[in-house]
Design a protein that fits this description.
This protein has 133 residues and is an alpha+beta fold. The chain contains 5 helices and 2 strands. It has a two-stranded antiparallel sheet with strand order 1-2.
């Protein structure tokens, strides 16, 4: 948020996160506090992917993604729909699903334009987990 000209202190305070946690090794915040922070940042940036992709994932994208997958016949169909949706939303990450019998593997590939960092990969995985719950 600092890189984008925002003071993180008010964001953290409204989400119940102590600023000292930003510099503490192995610091953790509660899931509700992280969710609140996610929503606050999404609202400020109009980007549910925190600027981690060349293309912004505009606020409301996740809700539309949920609508695209909620009536899928099974988990594989839901994941494949989600993959198609993310291909439209994102430029830098290309998730791929491979199914081998009863096992499924989700692999994240970087597009040639930009190598996403660990935070981008983890954010995408959080979105998938949230979608499948």
């Amino acid at each position: 948020m600092r890189e984008r000209g925002f003071d993180p202190a008010p964001l953290l305070a409204c989400c119940g996160i102590a600023p000292a946690l930003l510099t503490a090794l192995q610091a953790r915040v509660s899931a509700p506090s992280y969710a609140a922070l996610w929503l606050e940042i999404t609202g400020l940036l109009d980007d549910g992917f925190f600027g981690e992709d060349n293309r912004h994932m505009k606020a409301g994208s996740f809700a539309m993604l949920f609508r695209a997958v909620h009536d899928a016949a099974d988990l594989e169909q839901a994941l494949r729909r989600a993959l198609r949706f993310f291909a439209v939303l994102l430029d830098d990450l290309r998730p791929e699903l491979r199914v081998e019998g009863a096992d499924a593997f989700l692999t994240l590939h970087a597009a040639a334009r930009r190598e996403p960092g660990a935070f981008a990969n983890e954010t995408l995985l959080i979105l998938f987990v949230g979608l499948m719950n």
